[in-house]
Amino acid sequence: MSTESHHAGCCTPHPVHAERAQLDDLAPADRTATARHHGKGPAAADAKADLLLTGSLLTMDEANPRAEAVAVSGGRIVGVGSRSDLEGLVGPSTQLVEAEGTVMPGLVEPHMHLFTSGITWGTVDCSPTANATFDDVVARLKAAVPSVPAGSALVGQLFDPSLFPGMPVLTADILDQVSTDVPVMVMNASQHFFYVNSAAYAAVGVDASTPDPAGGSYGAKDGRLTGVVAEAGAMVPFIKLLPPMTKETLVAALTGIANEAAKVGTTKLHEAATGALLGAAEVDLLHATAAQPGFPVRITAAVWGLRLDDMTKAGITVGSGDDMVRTEFVKWVADGSNQGFTGYMREPYLNSDSRGAANYTVDELVTNFTASLEAGWPLMMHGNGDAGIDNILEALAQVSKLPVWDASLRHRIEHCSVLHDEQIAQMAALGVNPSFLMNHVRLWGRAFRDEILGAERANKLDRVRSAQAAGLRPSLHCDYSVSPMNPLDYVCTAVTRTMADGGEVLNPDERISVQDALKGITTDAAWMCRSDDLCGSIEVGKAADFTVLAADPTAVEAEAIREIEVRQTWLDGEVRFSA
Q1: Is the distance from CB of 52 to CB of 94 less than 8 angstroms?
Q2: Residues sharing a CB contact under 8 Å with residue 61, sequence separation 6 or more, in sequence order
């Protein structure tokens, strides 16, 4: 079943968001595909480099893994090697910089959410990081009520019951204690749920008798509203309670997130649901944001499948954009969140009779995938539960027999959380690769093992080693703002598989080497995002995007990798962040 109706005009917001979107001053971007910029070196034999960056280079280029220097001209790499190798590229105007640490290619975040995270940017922090206890969350929300402007709602973000003892939920009864007059709406960290009070239900006209929409639940149980609003079909009406969206507020939020990414060494983001809220205007916003002087990251985007027709009418096609912003995939979401018990499982969740739910039947997935492929789009497919992944693979098996199938497009399954041996084999046969949310192991591993899935299924989480052994090229991501953005943290978890709660190791057989883990945030992540011609390794012809680390991640204790300081990030040969 579909999770959202799809009738907006090609350049307009979804109807629910139209009253909140104030984007009259947003100029349409050039949405046509532009040629990729390949650096070709100095124009003449005696041309010199603009920059020579020296130090200890971990290039992630298998043909030249270590180097002493990299030369840059016009924002592109024109030489990599020893200092003496590059002497001929140094002239009187060449800037000479000695890096204070280990230089790596700029890190790649292959799955995150700019817009769905941006709409709650700066709202009340309900995360376990900011709140030691569940009571602290409630107290923080109560303290924020007096500052809510008249006629507005109190909005919170990042709440996750599974990371608090006893898995407590922000029910309507509890949120009514926060306020009975002010609508209260808190987004779950997974972005698959809102928790709302009675005033919020009233503000959008939902009561206990309101039928659930396709692909969602308003949370009615035994004639009462619980306050738990699940999945996109039901969440969309509540989004109108958020503050109005203007170009200024959205650009500020996107810029703030990008700056946070640069602080953890990231120079490349892959936005995983572009157009879901505002249609083609989101592509324009990405271009407007990235055009700011000194913007620190590149962006590729996966357009929201349910808006694909609208995007096409707006002139957005595969590869349209430029080297700062480019659309590369179409996104389909087959199921929900495992920690939210909506991921679609073969067997019920622990101590439950629920298996979660599929957002689409296999036949519907076949229809959606086929239409996407006919338009030339690579597929980016969200699958969390093992049954959700089964549905994706069954649909792909059917589609792969059609003339439109092209395995070279680098189709991918997102999160790919609970993964069985036969599914890995199917993915390898199809040439479809997984992107793993590694914080499932670190942040939720104990909860998955003890309270959500049980030990046997929890051991099937994020099977990076098995995927690599099958010849796949997995990437590692955080699904921001579902979990914190820090690529070195994902590397550390892939290497150690230690769980934050208790420090135990979850399925040690799936641990991998540091070098193999680094591929998941550099070369393999860039390849999966269809950006390996531009970034992911330090090689001649690629962009001069670098991360300078205080220590070499291959030379420290595994558990220390996540603590390595990021000293600088560079984009196109210019420093964009410095600690």
Answers
A1: yes
A2: 80, 537, 538, 539
With respect to residue 65, please indicate whether it lies within any of the assigned structural domains. Answer: yes
pLDDT given for residue 12 in this prediction: 41
Residue where the block lists tokens 């995983």:
272
Q: How far is the C-alpha of 433 from the C-alpha of 429, rounded, in Å?
A: 10
> What are φ and ψ of residue 462, in 5° steps?
50, 65
Cα gap 160→130, rounded to integer Å? 12
What is the C-alpha to C-alpha distance for residues 88 and 498, in angstroms, rounded to an integer? 48
Distance from chain centroid for Cα 307: 19
Q: Which two tokens stand for residue 70?
A: 């990299």
Beta carbons within 10 angstroms of residue 95's beta carbon: 12
Longest dimension (CA), the chain: 80
User: Could you tell me the pTM of the whole model?
Assistant: 0.89
Strands 154-159, 184-188: parallel, antiparallel or unpaired by DSSP? Answer: parallel
**DSSP 8-state code for residue 243:** P
* Separation of alpha carbons 165 and 132, rounded Å: 10
Asked if residue 199 lies in contact with residue 183, where contact means CB atoms within 8 angstroms, the answer is: yes
Instruction: Calculate ∠ Cα 135-140-142, nearest 5°.
Output: 95
Residue that has been written with the tokens 């959008």 in this structure: 204
- Cα separation, 537 vs 189, in Å, equals 32
68 within some domain? yes
From CA 266, how far away is CA 297, in angstroms rounded? 7
pLDDT of residue 33: 65
CA atoms within 13 A on the CB side of 431: 10
Domains held by the chain: number: 4
pLDDT at 187: 92
Residues in the chain: 579
Structure tokens at 415: 């999160």
- Give per-10-residue mean pLDDT for the chain (579 aa): 30 49 72 59 69 98 98 97 96 97 98 91 92 96 96 93 90 97 93 94 96 91 95 87 86 96 98 92 95 97 94 93 97 93 96 94 98 97 98 98 97 98 98 97 95 97 98 97 95 97 96 98 98 98 98 98 98 98
* Parallel, antiparallel or unpaired: strands 298-304 and 325-333: parallel
Determine, yes or no, domain membership for 25: no
364 and 405, same domain (yes or no): yes
Q: How far apart are CA 495 and CA 558, in angstroms?
A: 7
Looking at residue 521, its pLDDT comes to 98
Instruction: Report, in angstroms and rounded to the nearest whole number, the Rg of the chain calculated over CA atoms.
Output: 23
Find tokens 């793993």 and name the residue.
436
The Cα 181–Cα 199 span in angstroms is 6
Structural domain harbouring 80: 31-105+538-579
The answer to whether residue 8 is domain-embedded is: no
425: Cβ–Cβ under 8 A, 6 or more apart, which residues?
Answer: 470
